[in-house]
Amino acid sequence: MKINLNLIKQKEEIYRREISRILYDLSLKKKLPSSSVVYCCLFGEKKKNLNVYLDFYQNDIKHNNLFKIKKNYYFIKKEMMKNKKKYLIPNIFFYLSEELNKNNKYDIK
After folding, report:
1. pTM of the complete model beyond 0.85
2. What CATH number is given to the structural domain containing 101?
3. CB-based burial of residue 3 (10 Å sphere; 0-12 exposed, 13-18 middle, 19+ buried)?
4. pLDDT tens, position by position, for the chain (109 residues)?
5. 2: CB partners within 8 A, 6+ apart
């Protein structure tokens, strides 16, 4: 089963926008720190998993902020389900944007 690369990129962009909106709402409701979604990447069999790389505006406590976002995982999934009634919602994994840079460092020659 061949999956169209453009379709995957479109889905990743849709997920990036949706998660950005949800995180913004979450930061207002629960007074969580502001964050931005740097990159989203679908992976796994049938693209059922989504890596989301975040950047926080408060540099000194990024890991603590990431932990707070992960604690609200089910709220984020529930919000995505409200808007995506026809689509399968992937499993979401949150990472710091520095982890994306570390992974890319080894790929570049």
Report:
1. no
2. 3.30.300.20
3. exposed
4. 456 788 888 888 989 999 999 999 988 888 887 888 998 999 887 778 999 999 887 666 778 888 888 999 998 888 888 876 656 788 999 999 876 556 554 443 3
5. none
Host domain of residue 90: 5-107
- What is the C-alpha to C-alpha distance for residues 98 and 92, in angstroms, rounded to an integer? 18
**What six digits make up the tokens of 74?**
């089910």
Rounded to the nearest 10 degrees, what angle do helices 73-83 and 5-29 cross at? 120
What is the rounded distance in angstroms from the CA atom of residue 43 to the CA atom of residue 97?
A: 17
Q: Structural domain tally of the chain? A: 1
Could you tell me where the beta strands, DSSP code E, fall in the chain?
35-43, 49-56, 91-96
What does the pLDDT read at residue 105? 44
